Protein backbone atom coordinates (compact mmCIF):
# COMPACT_ATOMS: atom_id res chain seq x y z
CA UNK A 1 0.00 0.00 0.00
CA UNK A 2 1.44 3.39 -0.93
CA UNK A 3 1.61 6.26 1.52
CA UNK A 4 -1.10 8.16 -0.38
CA UNK A 5 -3.42 5.13 -0.37
CA UNK A 6 -2.77 4.54 3.33
CA UNK A 7 -3.51 8.19 4.14
CA UNK A 8 -6.83 8.09 2.35
CA UNK A 9 -7.77 4.57 3.51
CA UNK A 10 -9.94 5.57 6.39
CA UNK A 11 -10.61 7.56 9.45
CA UNK A 12 -8.02 9.68 11.15
CA UNK A 13 -5.36 7.01 11.12
CA UNK A 14 -3.65 8.75 8.24
CA UNK A 15 -3.48 11.99 10.22
CA UNK A 16 -1.65 10.31 13.09
CA UNK A 17 0.59 8.04 11.09
CA UNK A 18 1.65 10.51 8.41
CA UNK A 19 2.27 13.80 10.12
CA UNK A 20 4.33 16.11 7.98
CA UNK A 21 7.01 17.45 10.27
CA UNK A 22 10.43 18.60 9.36
CA UNK A 23 12.31 17.47 12.42
CA UNK A 24 12.36 15.34 15.50
CA UNK A 25 9.16 14.77 17.39
CA UNK A 26 8.90 14.76 21.13
CA UNK A 27 8.11 11.61 23.09
CA UNK A 28 4.72 13.03 24.04
CA UNK A 29 3.84 13.55 20.35
CA UNK A 30 4.87 9.99 19.52
CA UNK A 31 2.80 8.60 22.43
CA UNK A 32 -0.16 10.76 21.40
CA UNK A 33 0.13 9.44 17.84
CA UNK A 34 0.32 5.83 19.05
CA UNK A 35 -2.78 6.24 21.23
CA UNK A 36 -4.58 7.97 18.36
CA UNK A 37 -3.71 5.10 16.00
CA UNK A 38 -4.82 2.45 18.49
CA UNK A 39 -8.04 4.30 19.23
CA UNK A 40 -8.91 4.61 15.53
CA UNK A 41 -8.04 0.95 14.89
CA UNK A 42 -10.30 -0.18 17.75
CA UNK A 43 -13.17 1.94 16.44
CA UNK A 44 -12.67 0.52 12.96
CA UNK A 45 -12.66 -3.04 14.26
CA UNK A 46 -15.92 -2.43 16.15
CA UNK A 47 -17.54 -1.03 13.00
CA UNK A 48 -16.35 -4.03 10.99
CA UNK A 49 -17.47 -6.53 13.65
CA UNK A 50 -20.91 -4.91 13.85
CA UNK A 51 -21.40 -5.06 10.07
CA UNK A 52 -20.08 -8.61 9.86
CA UNK A 53 -22.30 -9.84 12.70
CA UNK A 54 -25.36 -8.29 11.01
CA UNK A 55 -24.66 -10.36 7.88
CA UNK A 56 -23.95 -13.56 9.81
CA UNK A 57 -27.07 -13.20 11.96
CA UNK A 58 -29.13 -12.85 8.78
CA UNK A 59 -27.80 -16.20 7.55
CA UNK A 60 -28.53 -17.80 10.92
CA UNK A 61 -32.11 -16.47 10.91
CA UNK A 62 -32.71 -17.99 7.46
CA UNK A 63 -31.44 -21.36 8.68
CA UNK A 64 -33.65 -21.12 11.77
CA UNK A 65 -36.68 -20.50 9.53
CA UNK A 66 -35.93 -23.70 7.59
CA UNK A 67 -35.62 -25.61 10.86
CA UNK A 68 -38.94 -24.24 12.11
CA UNK A 69 -40.84 -25.07 8.91
CA UNK A 70 -39.28 -28.54 8.82
CA UNK A 71 -40.16 -29.10 12.46
CA UNK A 72 -43.80 -28.16 11.92
CA UNK A 73 -44.08 -30.45 8.90
CA UNK A 74 -42.43 -33.27 10.83
CA UNK A 75 -44.90 -32.73 13.69
CA UNK A 76 -47.83 -33.05 11.29
CA UNK A 77 -46.22 -36.16 9.78
CA UNK A 78 -46.02 -37.71 13.22
CA UNK A 79 -49.69 -36.95 13.85
CA UNK A 80 -50.69 -38.52 10.55
CA UNK A 81 -48.47 -41.53 11.26
CA UNK A 82 -50.33 -42.09 14.52
CA UNK A 83 -53.69 -41.71 12.79
CA UNK A 84 -52.52 -44.15 10.12
CA UNK A 85 -51.55 -46.75 12.67
CA UNK A 86 -54.85 -46.28 14.47
CA UNK A 87 -56.92 -46.58 11.30
CA UNK A 88 -54.88 -49.50 10.05
CA UNK A 89 -55.24 -51.47 13.25
CA UNK A 90 -58.87 -50.55 13.89
CA UNK A 91 -60.36 -51.09 10.51
CA UNK A 92 -57.98 -53.07 8.31
CA UNK A 93 -59.56 -51.11 5.50
CA UNK A 94 -58.24 -48.76 2.83
CA UNK A 95 -58.82 -45.71 5.04
CA UNK A 96 -55.37 -46.26 6.56
CA UNK A 97 -53.82 -45.89 3.12
CA UNK A 98 -55.01 -42.29 2.96
CA UNK A 99 -53.38 -41.59 6.32
CA UNK A 100 -50.16 -43.24 5.17
CA UNK A 101 -50.09 -41.14 2.00
CA UNK A 102 -50.50 -37.95 4.07
CA UNK A 103 -47.72 -39.07 6.40
CA UNK A 104 -45.35 -39.54 3.47
CA UNK A 105 -46.41 -36.30 1.78
CA UNK A 106 -45.67 -34.27 4.92
CA UNK A 107 -42.83 -36.33 6.39
CA UNK A 108 -40.47 -36.43 3.41
CA UNK A 109 -40.37 -32.65 2.73
CA UNK A 110 -40.23 -32.03 6.49
CA UNK A 111 -37.21 -34.28 6.86
CA UNK A 112 -35.54 -32.64 3.85
CA UNK A 113 -36.06 -29.14 5.29
CA UNK A 114 -34.77 -30.19 8.71
CA UNK A 115 -31.61 -31.66 7.17
CA UNK A 116 -31.02 -28.61 4.98
CA UNK A 117 -31.49 -26.22 7.91
CA UNK A 118 -29.19 -28.30 10.09
CA UNK A 119 -26.46 -28.20 7.44
CA UNK A 120 -26.69 -24.42 7.04
CA UNK A 121 -26.91 -23.31 10.66
CA UNK A 122 -23.69 -22.20 12.33
CA UNK A 123 -22.51 -19.75 14.94
CA UNK A 124 -21.65 -16.38 13.42
CA UNK A 125 -17.91 -15.67 13.50
CA UNK A 126 -16.56 -12.23 12.49
CA UNK A 127 -13.60 -13.74 10.59
CA UNK A 128 -12.55 -10.52 8.81
CA UNK A 129 -12.49 -8.70 12.14
CA UNK A 130 -10.29 -11.42 13.66
CA UNK A 131 -7.92 -11.23 10.68
CA UNK A 132 -7.76 -7.43 10.90
CA UNK A 133 -7.02 -7.52 14.62
CA UNK A 134 -4.14 -9.93 13.95
CA UNK A 135 -2.79 -7.58 11.27
CA UNK A 136 -3.12 -4.61 13.61
CA UNK A 137 -1.25 -6.41 16.38
CA UNK A 138 1.55 -7.22 13.96
CA UNK A 139 1.61 -3.60 12.77
CA UNK A 140 1.80 -2.32 16.36
CA UNK A 141 4.63 -4.74 17.11
CA UNK A 142 6.55 -3.53 14.08
CA UNK A 143 5.98 0.11 15.11
CA UNK A 144 7.40 -0.48 18.57
CA UNK A 145 10.49 -2.22 17.16
CA UNK A 146 11.54 0.65 14.92
Number of helices: 5
- Overall shape: it is rod-shaped
Number of domains: 1
Distance between the termini: 19 Å
Please count the beta strands (DSSP E, at least 2 residues each): 0
Describe this structure in words.
- The chain has 146 residues and is mostly helical.
- It has one domain.
- It is built from five helices and no strands.
- The relative contact order is 0.12.
What is the topology?
Elements: H1 3-8, H2 13-17, H3 27-91, H4 95-120, H5 127-145
Summarize the structure.
It is built from five helices and no strands.
Distinctive features:
single chain; disordered N terminus; 0% strand; mainly alpha; 146 residues; 83% helix
